[in-house]
Amino acid sequence: MPGEFQEGQGIVSSIQEEVAEVRRSLGDDLPARALFERYRPERGWFLRPDSAEDIHGIDHEARVLIWQELLARLLIKDGAALDQEALRWAAATHDTQRVSDGIDFPHGQRAAAWVERHLLHRIPVGSLDTVLYLNTWHVPLDDQAPEMTPELAVFKDADALDRVRIDDFNARYLRCRYSHTLLQYLAQELFDRSEAKRWGEGYAAFDCVCVAAVEMGLIHPD
Fold this sequence. Notes:
Blueprint: H1 9-26, H2 33-37, H3 58-77, H4 84-93, H5 107-118, H6 125-137, H7 150-161, H8 177-181, H9 187-201, H10 205-216
């Protein structure tokens, strides 16, 4: 069963099995690294540019970008209709306007306002309102949002998966089937590998995540 990890080699085998299941489920629809380059967060996007290297910085945005892409594609394979452009841009911008790495409930609203001021030339017109909605409502509890749209459920799950980085991940709060049955068992591995690439091998914050995802087999190297 997914997630029934054992010590040592059992953990490696389980991770390989979960990655193989992602690849089997997506087939030719496995995303390529080149896709993510279009949404690379910039240091200058951050309200506090120095925080671009912190726990809500570029590498976090990048992991959320990876998770939303995989989850959205898995759900679309099952017939879901999702605004993928909105999900990608929300992943790239949702935490950029934090005033601190602590409790900061208005940061989603600030991120939405920042997007309206600075990224209208890059976000498709038809996706803009959804990006603003995702940024605004990714912070409050689920029942406080006006509507738990399919995109918001995907986005909150993608953000939640990277809570492994702060030792605060709780699978009970995941909303989507594939998050429960598959992706949650890969979240720690992607974080650990991207941290090793960043601090052990000197990769930049965004690149460390993409390289780690390629090495795991979650995205194509193209």
